């Protein structure tokens, strides 16, 4: 029952400041994206179906984005099911 925690800088490496476009703060503001990618991979990859007791912590990632992200995932899944991309939803 040990939760998994991903740090806000979870990514494939490199500096957030090297990959930015525009103002230097833009790279800093984008650091949440890596955590969103991990959450999406785990949800859409079925990790929580295979391990129902699995807990994920995004404590340092300013989790205020999570409700909107969850809404977007539901919206995308509904549209994919309507379009026949995903069966069984």
- Total DSSP E strands: 2
How would you sum up the global shape? flat
Strand order of the largest sheet: 1-2
Mean pLDDT: 77
Summing up helix and strand content along with how strands pair, one would put the structural category as mainly alpha
Low-confidence stretches: none
**What count of helical segments does DSSP give?**
4
Q: Compute the CA-based radius of gyration.
A: 15 Å
Q: Please outline the major beta sheet.
A: 2 strands, parallel
The percentage of residues in β strands lies in under 5%
Fraction of helical residues = 40-55%
Order of helices and strands: EHHHEH
C-alpha end-to-end distance? 29 Å
List keywords for this structure.
mainly alpha, two-stranded parallel ribbon, single chain, 4 helices, flat, 89 residues
